[in-house]
Write a structure and sequence with these properties.
The complex is a heterodimer of chains A (200) and B (138). Chain A is of the alpha+beta class. Chain A has an eight-stranded mixed sheet with strand order 1-10-9-4-5-6-2-3. Chain A has a two-stranded antiparallel ribbon with strand order 7-8. In chain A, strand 2 and strand 3 form a beta hairpin. In chain A, helix 2 packs across helix 5. With 138 residues, chain B is mainly β. Chain B has a single domain, classed as PCu(A)C copper chaperone (Immunoglobulin-like, Sandwich), CATH 2.60.40.1890. Chain B has one helix and ten strands, in the order H-E-E-E-E-E-E-E-E-E-E. In chain B, strands 1, 2, 3, 4, 5, 6, 7, 8, 9 and 10 form a ten-stranded mixed sheet that branches. Classes of the chains: A alpha+beta (200), B mainly beta (138). Chains A and B meet through helix 2, helix 3 and strand 8 of A and strand 2, strand 4, strand 5 and strand 8 of B. The complex binds copper (II) ion. Copper (II) ion binds next to strand 8 of chain B.
């Protein structure tokens, strides 16, 4: 029964969201308060979600060994940033590792700098497996190790959800982009609309 | 005259009862310098009358190469090992991000944007086809 109420309140939220915007979103409208969390960034520093208050955040869960999905999404994110024009500096990207055992701050640093030429727009985050698990759960991000047979070089890959989440400047999730919706131009237009709607 | 017709028929039967494989626009994805893995993409065109099958890919640049397919299962992105990739007659199969790809694992050195990498594709009927693929940021 509790489940039933959850579903209804969820649908209500979606409905309210849908009618209050005058823009046809490319991403999936959503409303969820993201509780503060603390992880370790690419410089080994502990940082919290609340440190980014005032910025619109694009959050992506991935791992640096990822061969196909994450490089595609990170390139799309890079292109999206380039299409934001004067709004680029209002937006920051969080790449959260779902492979904390291998993704050290040093590895993350090299990985994100490849997609962030000016070094100011992407933060890579890792932590203990428990910390990552808690954060992923809040985003309903799923990940699971898949061992590779006869391949000690790579060891394992990770099946994972590859959504890009947009969080507003007050820490509320507003949009979710599915991997199939990865047109940087359209994502950028959604972000600009949200920034104008909720204020810079 | 009969000889010429005969020769023509032999030629005809050889060239038309075979697959005709062509590799179009191969490219390797640029990845961060410390990345261990990347992928090779291309369009495989078969303009022959018979199907062919890609069974393996070889290269010196990495320790292991596999034919893979990325699939989206309820939002979870998974990679499936494909043992053989069939190319039906008169058709093209596209290897692209989020779909079929040649997965390159355990890179021996970083791949630089615009450098050309060598691969040998092995087909069941057409045999070995050597290609050079540029590294692209896309
Ligand atoms: Cu793969």
């Amino acid at each position: 029964m509790e489940h039933f109420y959850k579903l209804w309140s969820f649908l209500l939220v979606v409905l309210i969201t849908a009618v209050s915007y005058a823009h046809q979103f490319y991403g999936y409208p959503y409303i969820q308060k993201i509780n503060d969390f603390t992880l370790t960034d690419q410089n080994g520093k502990r940082v919290s979600l609340s440190d980014f208050r005032g910025k619109y955040l694009l959050v992506f869960f991935g791992y640096t060994y990822c061969p196909d999905v994450c490089p595609t999404s990170m390139l799309r994110i890079k292109e999206t940033l380039e299409k934001l024009g004067k709004y680029k500096d209002k937006v920051h990207v969080l790449f959260i590792s779902v492979d904390p055992e291998r993704d050290t701050p040093e590895l993350l640093k090299k990985f994100i700098s490849f997609y962030d030429p000016d070094g100011r727009h992407i933060t890579g985050l890792t932590g203990s497996p428990e910390e990552i698990k808690k954060v992923a759960k809040m985003f309903r991000a799923y990940y699971e190790k898949v061992p590779l047979k006869n391949n000690p070089e790579v060891g394992y890959l990770i099946d994972h959800t590859a959504f890009i989440y947009l969080i507003d400047k007050n820490g509320i999730m507003r949009l979710i982009f599915r991997p199939a919706n990865d047109d940087p131009e359209k994502i950028a237009q959604d972000i600009i609309y949200v920034i104008k709607y909720f204020g810079e | 005259m009969r000889k010429i017709v005969g020769l023509f028929l032999i030629f005809f039967s050889i060239s038309y009862s075979q697959p005709q494989i062509e590799i179009i626009n191969p490219w390797v994805r640029a990845v961060p310098p410390n990345a261990k893995n990347t992928a090779l993409f291309m369009i495989i065109k078969n303009s022959g009358d018979e199907s062919d099958t890609l069974t393996a890919v070889k290269t010196d640049i990495a320790k292991m190469v596999m034919i893979h397919k990325t699939v989206n299962e309820d939002g979870v992105m998974k990679m499936v090992h494909v043992h053989q990739l069939k190319i039906p007659p008169h058709s093209t199969v596209e290897l692209k991000p989020g779909g079929y790809h040649i997965m390159i694992m355990g890179l021996k050195e970083p791949v630089n944007v615009n450098s050309m990498l060598k691969f040998t594709l092995i087909f069941k009927k057409s045999g070995k086809i050597n290609i050079k693929a540029p590294v692209k940021m896309k």
